[in-house]
Amino acid sequence: IDLTDRDGISALLLSVTPEIVVNLAAQAGVRYSLTNPHAYAESNLTGFLNILEGCRHASVGHLVYASSSSIYGGSTRMPFSVHDPADHPLSLYAASKKANELMAHTYSHLFGLPTTGLRFFTVYGPWGRPDMALFIFTKAILGGEPIDVFN
Known about the structure:
By secondary structure, the protein is of the alpha/beta class.
């Protein structure tokens, strides 16, 4: 079901009445958010709101959802901590994931829906996303092609 299908999400959760919902769906990637911002608003904001509303009305016991380390923005403090402020995201993608955290917090407060956000960091190695610089650069180098540099 497309996350933006409000009625579909609601009907699914009401019919299944899960104890726990794990939402790992999102429009990911920083560069794509520069050229396709609506994809992030639709999936990460509207879609996440539909998940929250569906969980609320189906009396789900706990919502676990994907956030992102991108919300730390330009922070130079290392290592990152969940206690660090994350109020200055540097991309629409990061802003949408920070908005998810705020929306989840609000639903927890208003409706007693327990939520847990997981701030994922980039995965490197064989399980990494093929659109990451490591893979793009390696492919270009092995193919004798120039490397595109962004920003």
